[in-house]
Design a protein that fits this description.
Helices cover 20% and strands 35% of the residues. It has a six-stranded mixed sheet with strand order 4-3-2-1-10-11. It has a five-stranded mixed sheet with strand order 5-6-7-9-8, covered by helices on one side. Belongs to the metallophosphoesterase superfamily. YfcE family.
Length: 159
């Protein structure tokens, strides 16, 4: 099973559409969004995804009440813990406790955002992924990650 990992979309509707196209081309069944959607109207694009969706609020998500209304249970406060196909996943926006969570050994995968730079590494048996920025505003390069959940093999895709 493949999952799409995205973060820091910051209202860039065109790049959200491009990311969803990449996810569709790669047969992604689940999207994990590590926060900073920014405006509730981003739901107009994400709602077309026909699969599971897990998200958390980021520090730039201002209208959390309307975001929650639009996304429903798909978006939660951080830190979010869940399981997909037997893989234990922690999802957050800001990275302050990534290392501690990885050291705990409780998770197979930790996903975070906020830094706008790709970070893929292992700490003990935990894979840590920051997919970089989907908006491309800060560094001029938009990125997402497609992860084979069974093998935990990530692929960074720039667009």
């Amino acid at each position: 099973m493949k999952i799409g990992i995205i973060s820091d979309t910051h209202d860039h509707m065109d790049n959200i559409k491009k990311a969803l196209k990449i996810f569709k081309e790669n047969d992604v069944k689940t999207i994990i969004h590590a926060g900073d959607f920014v405006s509730p109207f981003t739901w107009r694009v994400f709602k077309d995804f026909d699969g599971e969706f897990y998200g958390v609020f980021g520090n730039n998500d201002g209208d959390k009440v309307l975001l929650k209304k639009m996304y429903g249970e798909r978006i939660q406060p951080q830190i979010r813990e869940f399981e997909i196909n037997g893989k234990r996943i922690a999802l957050m926006h800001e990275p302050q406790i990534v290392e501690a969570l990885a050291q705990s050994g409780r998770f197979d995968l930790i996903v975070y955002g906020h830094m706008h730079e790709v970070d893929i590494r292992k700490v003990n048996n935990t894979l840590i992924i920051n997919p970089g920025e989907a908006c491309g505003w800060l560094y001029g390069k938009a990125t997402v990650v497609v992860l084979d959940l069974e093998s935990l093999q990530p692929v960074v895709i720039s667009f």
